[in-house]
Amino acid sequence: MEAEHLCVLVVEHDDAFARSLSGMLGRAPDAGVEITVARTLDAGLDCLAETSFDAVILELFLPDGAGVANVTLLQAIAPQVPVVVIGTVDHEGLAAEVVQAGAQDYLVKSQLSPRWLFRALRYAMERHQANEALVEAATQFRGLFDHLTEGIFRTTPDGRYMMANQALARIYGYASPEALMAGITDISTALYVQPGRREEFRRLMDEQDTITRFESPVFRRDGTVIWIAENCRAVRDETGRLLYYEGTVEDITQRRAAEEKVRHSEALYHSLVETLPQNIFRKDLQGRFTFANQQFCRTLNRDLAEIVGRTDADFFPPDLAAKYQQDDARVLASGQKYETIEHHRLPDGRLIYVQVVKTPLRGAYSQISGLQGIFWDITEQYLAEERLRQAHDELARNREALHAKNVQMEDDLKMAREIQLTILPQQYPVFPPDATPETSLFHFTHRYLPTGAVGGDFFNVTALSPTQAAIFLCDVAGHGVRSALIAAMIRALVEELHPWADDPGAFMTKLNEELGNILKHTGTPVMTTAVYLIADATDGTLRYTNAGHPKPVWLSAKQNTVAWLHSPNKQAQPPLGIFEKNTYQTAAVTLALRDRVLLYTDGLYEVEGANEQWYSQALLAAAIHKNAQQPLPQMLDTVLDEVRAFAVEHAFTDDVCLIGFELARHHPRKKARTHPPQTAG
């Protein structure tokens, strides 16, 4: 097998480490790796624009990069190329952030080895290839660029837009990025409301090269004012010369308005807590009440003036007051919220449940200055949750019982599968009986692929005479236990109908009648397709009938053609079990030496491929014709592999049964004659 050839782009500013990566990749097993090294992010982007690569290994922190944002930018430029990020920090949060940004994997430099590196690349490419087919890189980038909710920009140092996306145009009130760049030729005067704001922006960029959350009021196209937050970095060339600024813009008008509302809401706090049905209070560090809302006052039946300055000991029994003071001490010592559910017996004998939450109060410098408490009656909720917990316990017990039944069912299905496989031919008859499999008049091969534990496909090969082979194949609609039971029933009927076995039409007519008589008592019709053939090695005669089954394929060895075995007059005959009194007809052709016939169920070609395309019988015939020179068993395996490769999931979704037989020799009593095959269609 020819070794795989991979082209890998390494974006790494450290020359020594870049050489180390190249050495690791050069030792990749069963693959030749061509490596291109870029020392900067911009150089890497230029390489991606000019050359096709199978994968990219990206250093996370580059002199001209911005960390995780590098991944997003690289993916926007070349979405068809999988990216593996390498860094110096072993951190799950950073790894998750990198993957979320679009990378396929995150590797730590200190943990790299040739084996791990190549496996990571392989896995990255495999995961990347499992996604939907990508459009061209430029189209993908434009779509991503324009559909981001954040505005993206690139500007010259003197304040002209070089690039903008649709989101930025929308934020500033323009119909398109082109209209934005044409309408704003000087950012300092046309955009910023505050004089000198652009100069402040440039000053910070000169000092830091990056800005985060640079908030400013700006003008929209219609003259209205909004607030924005900018994240920006300065992009420089290798000499340090400033090329441009690039970054993102977020419309924070609503957030700013919300912050303003929060400031105003402080004035409304007391009026709010006074209307709440919960009991709310505050205490200082000595446990003295400093505030109580009206509900708390009603609970204690005291005025606020009677409560402020007092402690729990002034209002509650000693044991209860001591508990409250202990809870307060826990909050003040830990600085953490304390939450509990208390139960109290009222004078009338009722038991109530109370939700209590206590939190520390902090001053301007975060020092604890007291605590705030809130409590309310949750008796109804608590009792409802208790009933729910009891129901959950009962459900858990039922789930365990159900699991045990499922285990038993799985065991039963396993046994059913084993039983079903035993009813399928374990070995084929030989013709004549004294022949060996190698010297038999007919050679048989089959492949049976059920999609579940049991399936609804069944076939049989029997000897009607020393020179006559009978092949029966049926496909019960659906798959699973129900279909398997119907298939077993048909197997029994096939054996009982041996007196009709030498006439395909009469055999299928009788089988349909008997199956209909059985199924009509169930009240549930089941559609079953079937095909029955009798091949005679004395003269090559092949007699057959078809009950709604996919047409068998006739592969002519001498003429190198593929044809369908049509029903008489090419008139389709109905499946079994639909019309009780239907009469099936027999058709006949003549096989030549080395001719092959393939029978199959519809699960072989009813396979969905990419772009919602389906495999077809025409494609199946082409695959059979292409591989006609292979030995029969190998041909069947090759055809199955080609159908799997076509499928989206590379697997069959329905039961598949594929049977092939070849006329290996003629019986010496008669000389075979050949008829031209029917035209496939």
Strand order in space, largest sheet: 2-1-3-4-5
The end-to-end distance, rounded to whole angstroms, is 37 Å
CATH class of the largest domain: Alpha Beta
Tell me the major beta sheet: 5 strands, parallel
**Which structural class fits the helix and strand makeup?**
alpha+beta
What fraction of residues sit in β-strands? Answer: 25-35%
Describe this structure in words.
With 681 residues, the chain is α+β, with helices and mostly antiparallel strands. The chain has four domains: 4-134, Rossmann fold (3-Layer(aba) Sandwich), CATH 3.40.50.2300; 148-260, PAS domain (Beta-Lactamase, 2-Layer Sandwich), CATH 3.30.450.20; 276-377, Beta-Lactamase; 441-663, 4-Layer Sandwich (Phosphatase 2c, domain 1), CATH 3.60.40. Helix content is 36%, strand content 26%. It contains 20 helices and 25 strands. Helix 1 packs across helix 5 (114-130) and helix 16 (379-423) runs parallel beside helix 17 (481-496).
